[in-house]
Write a structure and sequence with these properties.
heterodimer; A: about 100 residues; alpha+beta; Ribosomal Protein S5, domain 2; 2 helices; about 30% helix; globular; B: about 300 residues; 2-enoyl-CoA Hydratase, Chain A, domain 1
Chain lengths: ~100, ~300
């Protein structure tokens, strides 16, 4: 297992919502827990992954994710079991959509 | 075919709970943000899930207060680890204080999580003890079984310790799963890759005909909901008379079907014409074809 942490400063704070969990910890899949972090001014993404040594690919996928949504005051936690970059991107988008819910 | 059918089989644990209970009524206890994860998986370098593969909480069913737990088959096949089992036990013990109309267990599990060995085994036994405590307090414990991984091992025993089981054709119920039987007894005894054999042996239709499952429903969350509502007034009976009657029923079943080699033989012995067609019938046709023929 490998743990990665990314932090992005600045962005738009969403309305505070209850935490949401999207996806499942199964082979080739991942779960994404999104929680509000009011006042933090940053978006922190912590990843625990079973696929060791892909940090640079995660960096690219998460950079893209942050560029798409530009949100701050969030804590995003991921448990991954070797999902492909495309699956990760889709799941992160789904997680944000679920978290924002009616506010989106 | 109901255009609004929402597959129970395809849904995840939270989706099932939200669809089953009154709209918007479900409140999760010890949710994923609490990060109550397995202490046993990290030392094995295995991934954890924030909810340890089970969702527990309270909600309303047809306006009545219920407690409900749903296992997530997508995480380790819904297998019961120490935390997973403790969440189910805690839910059941909470029923003794809150006295809901019923406790609903949306099972989907291969049984004990082997990574957690004795801790998982103990957790399952604690769930069983809690089920019996809730039932003896007069609160029914109802099982819903229609997920992708079925209900096997220790959870198969838990399910049969409860008051009633609602199952779909896609649901499966047993002790040893097909792969386990093949591994221990040989492919001549049971070919786990023979899907038709697997389904007619452990699948919902057969479990319903044998009387192990009480209600057979279509693969639809709404159908599971309606069945659960109808069972809310079940009165648990843990009396010695009831246990003796059940033992008698099982002994008679063994006497009657003990020499059968296949579920098809049992269906014939039940007096069902053209038994080979049963797996092909949809739920309504099946219930009509087998009316008054259950063991």
């Amino acid at each position: 297992m490998e743990t990665l942490r990314f932090e992005y400063l600045g962005g738009t704070p969403p309305a505070v919502q209850a935490p949401t969990l999207t996806g499942v910890v199964g082979s080739g899949n991942l779960e994404v827990l999104v929680e509000a972090a009011p006042g933090s001014g940053s978006c922190v993404i912590e990843i625990t992954t079973a696929a060791v040594g892909f940090g640079h690919i995660w960096q690219a996928v998460i950079d893209d994710f942050h560029a798409r949504h530009g949100l701050c005051d969030l804590r995003i936690s991921v448990n991954d079991v070797g999902a492909t970059p495309a699956v990760v991107s889709l799941r992160l988008d789904q997680a944000i959509e679920t978290f924002l819910g009616d506010a989106a | 075919m109901n255009a609004h059918r929402h597959s129970y089989y395809e849904a995840g644990a939270r989706e099932r709970l939200h669809g089953l209970l009154d709209a918007g009524s479900f409140r999760e206890l010890l949710g994923p943000a609490e990060r109550m994860t397995s202490p046993h998986l990290p030392p094995l370098d295995a991934p954890v899930a924030f909810d340890d593969g089970v969702v527990v909480g309270r909600g309303r069913l047809a306006g009545r207060s219920v407690l409900a737990g749903a296992q997530e088959g997508g995480f380790n096949g819904g297998a019961v680890g120490e935390v997973h089992g403790a969440k189910l036990t805690g839910l059941l013990e909470r029923a003794l204080d809150e006295r809901p109309a019923a406790v609903l267990l949306l099972v989907e599990s291969g049984g004990v999580r082997l990574h957690e060995a004795n801790a998982g085994l103990i957790a399952v036994s604690e769930v069983m003890r809690a089920v019996l405590a809730v039932r003896s307090a007069g609160i029914p414990v109802l099982v819903l079984d229609g997920g992708q991984f079925g209900c096997f091992g220790g959870m198969g025993i838990v399910a049969r310790c409860c008051d009633a089981i609602v199952i779909s054709e896609e649901g499966r119920l047993g002790l040893s799963g097909p792969e386990v039987i093949e591994t221990t007894c040989g492919v001549e005894e049971f070919d786990s890759r023979d899907r038709a054999l697997v389904w007619r042996t452990v699948g919902g239709k057969h479990r319903y005909l044998l009387g192990e499952a009480d209600v057979l429903v279509a693969d639809d969350i709404g159908a599971f909901r309606e069945a659960a509502i109808r069972l809310l007034d079940t009165v648990p009976d843990l009396s010695l008379d009831a246990l003796d009657a059940e033992h008698g029923r099982l002994a008679a079943r063994l006497e009657r079907f003990g020499t059968c080699r296949d579920a098809l033989d049992i269906w014939s012995a039940l007096g069902i014409g053209q038994p080979a067609r049963l797996p092909l019938l949809d739920t309504d046709e099946f219930l009509t074809a087998t009316a008054d023929r259950r063991a």
